[in-house]
Each structure stands twice: as structure tokens, then as C-alpha cells.
Amino acid sequence: MAEEVKNTQQAEENRETNPSTQAAEKQDVPYGRFQEKNTQWNERGKIIEQKDDHIAKLEAEKEGTRQEALRKAGDIETLLKESQTKNVKYEETIKQQGEELGGYRTGLVDQVPEERRYITDGMSIANLQKFVSDEQTTANAGKTDSSRAGTTVKGEMGGYDSWQEFAIKDPKNAEKAIADSTANYIK
After folding, report:
1. Cβ proximity of 177 and 155 under 8 Å
2. What is the C-alpha to C-alpha distance for residues 187 and 167, in angstroms, rounded to an integer?
3. What pLDDT tens digit does each residue of the chain (187 aa) get?
4. Contacts of 104 (CB under 8 A, 6+ apart)
5. Residue 177 belongs to what H/E stretch?
6. By the 8 A CB rule, do 117 and 109 touch?
7. How far is CA 37 from the centre of its chain?
């Protein structure tokens, strides 16, 4: 008897639930709470944007007053050097963007057949994109069948390998095909 009590106590001790084996409980967030938090998050984003705009304005005003102070002090050379370095940076950016745009334009022109490339000379990028799109559409027009598979009969035997297969698998259309293809078909 003492042994049975000891075994049942051990069994009860071993019966403790292991949290890793239990199914995870679904923790839904009420929609009202979600909407409230989402609204707060969006408002924070708007406040951050406003503060960023305000900081940019303050920096621009600070730079303007600094330049004005340099002008009044007669330190034109410093202003000239700063504007020249800005111009160099802008020129490098423009050159890089021009190269990227040229590469993009070349890629578009390469998509046009060689006998029609003369048309692309002097076109803006937007017009060139439209032209290339139209050229590809017209070039592929005869190559693809836009109808859905199985909606129309293909070939003499409805797409089947033999008349027997056609007659077994699609008797109504097989009879119709025979009637259409035979001049003196008796109905």
C-alpha cells in the first residue's frame, strides 16, 4: 500500500505541464486598441516630419546669417571657395546622373530592332519608354495566343492526335468537325 501511494505521488509530480509542449494561446489584440496605437504612431510620424522641416529651416537661416556676416566682414574669398566646392559637388552629381540616364537610354534603345532605331534619335526618355513598350507589344502580337486553353478547337482534329481519340473524348465536336469538313455529309 505504501508503495502505491509513493508511485501515485511520483506520477502526480511528473504530471506537471511543460510550457514548451502546450499549444500556444492565441493573443488577439482588440481592433479598437490596434486602431488607437496605429493613430498614435501616425501622429508621432507627422510630428517628426514637422520637426525635421523646422530643423531644416533653422539650418538654412543659420547658413544665411553666416554668409551675410561673411559678406559684411569682407570675407568674400571664403564665400567664393564654398560656392565653388558646392558647384563641383553638383557637377559631379549631374555627371553621374547623366551617365546613369545614358545607360538606361542605351538599354531601352537596345530593345528596339536595329532597322527601327533611327526613330529613337532625339526622343525624350518618357516617349522612348512608350515607344519601346509599343514595339514589344506589336512584335509579340502574332506570337502569343491570348485565348484560354481549351476554349477553341485547335487544328483539324480538335487538338487530338487521331480521329479516334477525338471521337472518344469529344464526340459532339468530332461529329461537328466531320460534318464541317465533309462536303456530302448526311445528317
Report:
1. no
2. 16
3. 556 656 666 656 666 555 555 555 666 778 888 899 999 999 999 999 999 999 999 999 998 888 888 888 878 888 888 889 989 999 999 999 999 999 999 999 998 888 888 888 888 889 989 998 888 887 666 655 555 555 455 566 777 888 888 889 888 888 888 888 777 766 6
4. 125
5. helix 171-181
6. yes
7. 28
